Each structure stands twice: as C-alpha cells, then as structure tokens.
Amino acid sequence: MTHLQGKHIHLVGAKGTGMCALAEILIAKGAMLSGSDTAETFYTDKILKELGIPLSLFEETELRSDIELVIHSAAYDEENPVMASAAAAGIPRLSYPEALGELSMNYDAAAVAGVHGKTTTTALIGTLIKALGIQATVIAGSAVAGFSNRSTWIGGDRFLIAETCEYRRHFLHFHPRHIVLTSVESDHQDYFPDYASIKNAFMEFVTALPENGKLIYCHDDFGARDVAIAAGAKRPDIRLIPYGENAPGRWAVNHGATAPGINKFRIGAFEKEFTLGIPGRHIALDAAAALTLTHCINPNFDVETAVAALSSFRGSRRRCEIVGETGGILVMDDYAHHPTAIRATLKGLKAFYPDRRLVVDFMPHTYSRTAALIDAFAGSFTDADILILHPIYASARESFTQKVSGEELAGQTARQRKNGTTFFHEEFDQTVQYLRKNLRQRDLFITLGAGNNWSIGQNFLEVRP
Q1: What is the pTM of this model?
Q2: For helices 195-206 and 222-234, what crossing angle results, to 10°?
Q3: The domain spanning residue 127 has which CATH number?
Q4: Could you count the other beta carbons within 10 Å of the beta carbon of residue 205?
Q5: Cα angle 155-140-325, degrees, rounded to a multiple of 5
Q6: Dihedrals phi, psi of 183, to nearest 5 degrees
Q7: Can you point out the beta strands (E) in 248-365?
Q8: CA quadruple 332, 126, 25, 154: dihedral positive or negative?
Q9: pLDDT digit string, tens, across residues 327-381
Q10: Which residue range forms the structural domain that includes residue 347?
Q11: Same domain flag for 138 and 160
C-alpha cells in the first residue's frame, strides 16, 4: 500500500489486536479511517477512541461513498454484512494479512514466526528498537507495556518488524528480508493435520526469502532446526543464524544461576550479563532472538543500552501478565494453550516464585488441538500444585466430528500427575468460589489458555473481601 495520505479506508473487525495495530500505522501515514465491529468491549476500544476512529456496529454500518478500500480481519468473510456491502459496491477488499503484506513491501522488513514465543520475541525486539533509537516500526500480537499498552511502536520508516501468523499460511503474504523462527511443531490441527503439513508451510515461508536473506532460528527447538536445515539445503544462499543453549557460534545462550525473581543469561556475542524481570528460560531464548535480529539490522548498537532495555521489559498482555494481588495472593494470566508452552511457562514460574504454591486454571482451546495432543496436555502440568480444568473452548473455525471433552482431559491428567490435586469445573463461578475458600497468602494463581477463563482471575479479585 502506497500513497495513503487522505485515503479513506474502512476496517471490518477494527477491535482486533492486529487490526488496531495496523490502524495506528495507517493513520501515521495519513489515511482517513472508520471501523465496524461487535458491541463487545475490548481493550482496543480505548486505543481506537484515542486514535479518533469512529466505530459502528456491523449491522448498523453504512459504507460511505468515499470509502476507497476495506481491510478486514481474517475472522470475517462476505457473510459479514459490511463485507457483503463492500462486495456489492465493488470496493477493493484486503484481509489483515494481505494488507500487512502489501505494507511490508515498503520497508526493509523482518518477520517473527513460530508456533510459540513470537509475541514476546516481537515485544522484546520492539523494546530494544525503541531504546536504541533505530528507525523502525514494530507490530506485536498483543499490547506491550513498553509501547504504552499498545501493540505498535512507530519509530521510523526504514524497518518493519512484525509478528506473523502461520495459521492458514497467512504469513506468506508478508515479504521479509529477515525471519526469526522461534519454534515449529504440530498445532492448528483444524488446518495442519500433522507435523509435516505445518513444517511445509514454514518451509514455504522461509524459502521465499530474497537472495541472501537471513533466517535466525532457535537451534534448541527440533522443528525450527529441522526447517532451517531443510531450507538451507534447498536455498544455500540463505544465511542461517542459530541461537539457543545448544547453538553453535556467537549466539549461544548461557543461563545464569536460578534465583527467586531473577532471570539472568549471557550470550556469546557480548561480554555483558542480561537480566529479565519475566520468568522462564524460554523468555531468555526470546530475548536472545531479539538481540540477534537487532544486531543483524544495526550491528553497532550500544550494548549497555540494550542491557538496560531488557531489564526494564515488563512483558505484554496475556503473557505472564500480573493481573493483581490481594491478601498476598498473586494473580496472573497467560495465553499458553499448547503443551510445550504450558510446560515452559509453569517451569519458569516455579523457578521465579519458588516460595509460592502454584494454582493453575486451564481451559483447552479447540477440539481438534485437544484431541490431537491430549497425551501431551495431560503430562504438561507437572509443576502445578493445584490444577483446575474446564470444558473445551470451541472455535467457530473448526469442524470436528470426533469425541473429546475437557472432562476426559481432566481424568487423564489426574492419572498422570503424581503430585498435586486436579479438579474439573464445569462453570467459572464454581472456580471463583473454590478460590475464595482455598487460596491463601503467598499463593500464585494463574489462568492459562486461549479461551475466556482469563475472567476468573479478575472476578476473584473483585469478589475477594
């Protein structure tokens, strides 16, 4: 997309995180925006209001005659009334991935991709970019504390660093010169039925890099390493840059001694020790990826400034987010919804908060993922002292005919857990009542998953005397 000054654009599904982030960039480039969405309130409502974007409900939206382009969330198609009106009027339409892809052609672009870790990695990159004054724009998949609780940092037009999504191969619309690849494994089973299919999607993305493009990949992750090796064999011109605990070369990560509230690491390229205020070795790996990409685009950055920037990083929305504290009980929320992410998150919390009892509430997301990974899910809660599970959060995007349930997952998990207690709660109110009666000082309660159980922590904080 070029020549955006004064261009009238309507956003369908404007409240989505990516759509709202895109809106900030379009406004910065002079576009005139309007939007439509549901009546449900999201954190982005406040941002859209601050940006001065008028919003209307889908069913009440009438597209003005001066609308030149409609950009829509990938969640909506022409069954949406605004999309149908745009089609009938012959107004050009782009999905969010398509629009972001067109935008990327105007920059020296870098993509952050992977099944896990891409949001935090992108947020860490943005934190470094901002502190170092690099002329770049960054789009993360969640609100970032250091971006004034927005998902976008606009610091210049030379580079565009964006979180990109593998689902339905959306990332193929993006045109990067650098790719950061955090992880590859089986996920989104409603679209990628097995590991081979999702690997092929990542392969297609990586091998589309321009000549001498760079792939920064996590050497510790089997899938990322597998893709890197295969891509390197197919495209020898691609520069492969590994990072991680077992990575060869200067981007090898060495973790510091574990201590409560401290997450320290060193990286071979620098003599300095880095400190993070977010738990988990996986977060240190994300920070290593961020440092590697930052070095690729600006090799002479000030390391002391980078050390200070990473130590100030306070995460992003729904990524080990501290929701509140009451009576010495810490309440957190995290988006982890895959067994690998769950294990890493809980292990990190145990090391970071060793004196707290870990009470975990998890809501499985999508029937296809739960069925495909039920054994892995059942074995992923080892570090939880108390575990509460719920019915599966269904997705409108999947059609699933097999039989699987949250109660089945709870039973299998309880049989695998050698220590701790496992409950199945049908209703959230049941969980809130349990928490009120059983949580005690020094407990850490965390909601996990891509469902709507995040509300439990907030409700507990509201009703606790």
Answers
A1: 0.91
A2: 50
A3: 3.40.1190.10
A4: 24
A5: 110
A6: -170, 150
A7: 253-255, 263-267, 273-276, 321-326, 329-334, 357-362
A8: positive
A9: 999 999 999 999 999 999 999 999 999 999 999 999 999 999 999 999 999 999 9
A10: 321-463
A11: yes
